[in-house]
Specification:
CATH architecture of the largest domain: Orthogonal Bundle
CATH topology of the largest domain: Arc Repressor Mutant, subunit A
Distance between the termini: 80 Å
Helix content: 55-70%
Length: 152
Amino acid sequence: MLEDRIAKLSDVQKQCLRLAASGCSSKEIAPEVGLSHQTVDQYIHRARVTLGAENRRDAARILMDAESAQPFKQFELKPSRLDDPQDSSIVDLPAAEPVTLVERIGLPPIGGKTNDLTVQQRLYAIARIAFFLMITATAIIIISKGAFVVLS
């Protein structure tokens, strides 16, 4: 039965299908759910197989139709609003200002999460990379010079 198949879907699969139903691609869904686009593709594929749909669009449509067609539960109690927005004495706080230049411009972070290294650790990592590049460049130059001597 359809309800049983939908019950087998995880919350993340349902969220991915809802976003797919709104026309989002896997790359657009990924930041919303905090996953990579390949993982989103896998979640949608498994949901599609579970629902028995031919493609992701059909799977999303099946989920949306099932969620919109669920009957109202007669004994479900919903709390009333506790406050009126006009009578609320809580003042909206301004959003925190972006910390980095990338956030100020509004670009997404490049390469994933920002690191938590101290300045000293960063400089040490940069120095190690420079040292190994220098050794590699020297080795390439010595090998090239040796090859030119042998070939001449």
